[in-house]
Amino acid sequence: MGKILTFSNHKGGVGKTTSTVNVGAGLSYLDKKVLIIDIDPQSNLSHSFGIENAENTIYEALKGQTPLLPIQVKANLEIVPSSLELSGIEIELSAEPGREYLLRELIEPIRKNYDFIIIDTPPSLGLLTVNALVASDEVYIPLQAEFLAIKGLTKISEVIEKIQKRLNKNLILGGVFLTQYDHRKVLNRDVAATIQAFFGGKVLNTKIRDNVSIAEAPTKGLDIFRYDPKCYGATDYLNLCVEIIEK
Amino acid sequence: MGKILTFSNHKGGVGKTTSTVNVGAGLSYLDKKVLIIDIDPQSNLSHSFGIENAENTIYEALKGQTPLLPIQVKANLEIVPSSLELSGIEIELSAEPGREYLLRELIEPIRKNYDFIIIDTPPSLGLLTVNALVASDEVYIPLQAEFLAIKGLTKISEVIEKIQKRLNKNLILGGVFLTQYDHRKVLNRDVAATIQAFFGGKVLNTKIRDNVSIAEAPTKGLDIFRYDPKCYGATDYLNLCVEIIEK
Ligand SMILES: Nc1ncnc2c1ncn2[C@@H]1O[C@H](COP(=O)(O)OP(=O)(O)OP(=O)(O)O)[C@@H](O)[C@H]1O
Ligand SMILES: Nc1ncnc2c1ncn2[C@@H]1O[C@H](COP(=O)(O)OP(=O)(O)OP(=O)(O)O)[C@@H](O)[C@H]1O
Ligand SMILES: [Mg+2]
Ligand SMILES: [Mg+2]
Description:
Two copies of one chain form a homodimer. By secondary structure, chain A is of the alpha/beta class.
């Protein structure tokens, strides 16, 4: 049965999309069958693979018009793209009873076809992110080792607890990991220590280092392994994949 | 009459909060009376000045319970803080007729007390950001010179046009400016050229360079001018202030 993971953090620009792309791709190179799902209206996950204005997106599926219709990106890797129309879904579904379970229902019939299903979320804790957390087995929190990034941690922990209590008893915090990390910066080292104190054993060993190749890869519609297999970014994301599999 | 500016971009982590802090503070050093308003539920603008769990926030004001009640931060600089409770406001106000005008109504009675009023927005184009744009004279778009950042530009341009047509005829695009810029990175130079082609004369001359002091300043609750007045960050943000005043 496919394990369902979500990358979530309402702080913006921390590497949720970048991690979904490169953990999804990394797992597919380790011979896992992987589905990645883009539920961010900005559609950055879709853009990272060169997909624009796709016909069947997560929007039509959440509206009940179609099932999930994945697109093959490469061997062992498929994606359900997003669309800008998704930004209105919270109001459109405000009267739908049990609207938090919609994504879980959509995934159920196809879950057995994959080893991992990974969901990229928008920088918010609204209905779309709640849908992802309700559908998931584990949530991973990417974090920049910067001051503003640690301020939001209590809020996201609160939301996860509420979801565990009311909507998804199986949800666990898979872990917290640092992104865009530069060990030469005192700020990064100091904040990393603070995060370690706050989360203890939940902080993953792998730190994703700041590496410009990671930011360049989406311009070519590629994951880091195909774009620059020997760079730090590829090494770090492969280590993260191994750490996630072994959990 | 105070000029009302908004920093907005639904892409996360591009420097909206950092720019509100440092343009607000910069203008106050240039002897302008400035009010900054935090309408992001994450409350990062409030955190940047060491304000946590404030009593009277933008939440109570938008709910009609209090007027705007600014807190003095330093000479010539006041802030209306935010609160995590704000994250539920979109649903709470879904039945309020003309809910897009709430912030504009709250600012009207105190507008004459300031030279500039600057609003920090969340990474989304929902009700809170719409309220800020409806209340504003000018909107400024901070941008990282990275691939994913340019993908959202058409969407934000569309929203601005709709607001100009239906809710605020006076709103103009003040300009687009680059943040966290590193001229040594080919990616930053390439994307900067793309943005120049897309926005032409609307791209401000000032680029805010990548500078770790900028990320360190909020750990001390200070703006960049008080934290490290001789660093690149302070020079760049002062140049940006001058460019905004001269517009
Ligand atoms: N380790 C890294 N090294 C260098 N650049 C990185 C790294 N991780 C992410 N980036 C870049 O930082 C920016 C932000 O990353 P990304 O868009 O993945 O974050 P996000 O959390 O998904 O943002 P949003 O909140 O807007 O959804 C992107 O331009 C990305 O290319
Ligand atoms: N010029 C810069 N140089 C170095 N670091 C910067 C710079 N500008 C912003 N930062 C850092 O980058 C991170 C993101 O900036 P900031 O939080 O201001 O962006 P934002 O757009 O307000 O994010 P959000 O979408 O979450 O509201 C912060 O940790 C900030 O300190
Ligand atoms: Mg993203
Ligand atoms: Mg912000």
